[in-house]
Design a protein that fits this description.
alpha/beta, Maf protein, seven-stranded mixed beta sheet, globular, binds inosine 5'-triphosphate
């Protein structure tokens, strides 16, 4: 079955393809279906609301089944922020580097043992006939104030997983998928399909 990956994030697309293609799904990026499509405004207050908003928008635009992902990082010391604002934490159109540095700066007021963080991923797969499947998962880590690793994307070089002794960016994609918010949510979603 053909599934449109309703995201502009290249890191998400890599991870989705690595999981879905071996399972026999044809996963195509929305850019490959509609090169000039614009992004919808993410007005939701929760990951689930934003994922539904994105999936619905891209499904209506393409007429194809669309899988959307809304995800982010939540810091306990910051009351769950940046949360749904993770992509624009340092401002609209800012880059990963700026977001990472802002998170380090905001946590600097707290002792290292309070730098606990969580990744959250909400997925929505919606078909043109209105059928819909959703899944949400999280994973736990500790933020560090220095980079380690070149893999992954976004906050991964700072997101340290104590049980594994490495950051998400030091893991292979397979290692990350096995424990990550996105890997676990996608596994649940695929199970719900069969
Ligand atoms: P789309 O809306 O087009 O999917 P986006 O990058 O804007 O792309 P989000 O609004 O869901 O996606 O923002 C997700 C933010 O959380 C973004 O800053 C990511 O870098 C970060 N994030 C999510 N999952 C991550 C992961 O697995 N590793 C590192 N950072 C992640």
């Amino acid at each position: 079955e053909k599934i449109v990956l309703a995201t502009h994030n290249a890191g998400k697309i890599r991870e989705f393809k690595s999981i879905l293609e071996p399972l026999g799904y044809e996963a195509v990026s929305v850019h490959d279906v509609m090169a000039d499509i614009t992004e919808p405004e993410e007005t939701g207050k929760t990951f689930a609301e934003n994922a539904l908003l994105k999936a619905t928008y891209y499904m209506k635009a393409t007429g194809l089944p669309c899988l959307a992902d809304d995800s982010g990082i939540a810091a306990d010391a910051l009351g769950g922020r940046p949360g749904v604002y993770s992509a624009r934490y340092a401002g609209l159109d800012c880059d990963d580097e700026a977001n990472n540095q802002k998170l380090i700066a905001d946590l600097a007021a707290f002792p290292p043992e309070q730098w606990t963080v969580h990744y959250i991923c909400s997925l929505v797969l919606i078909w043109p006939d209105g059928r819909i499947v959703t899944a949400e998962e999280s994973c736990d880590g500790v933020l560090r104030d220095f980079y380690a690793g070149d893999n992954g994307f976004g906050y991964d070089p700072l997101f340290y997983v104590p049980e594994k002794g490495k950051t998400m960016a030091e893991m292979t994609m397979e290692e990350k998928n096995a424990i990550s918010h996105r890997g676990k949510a996608l596994k649940k979603l695929v199970e719900a399909l069969s």
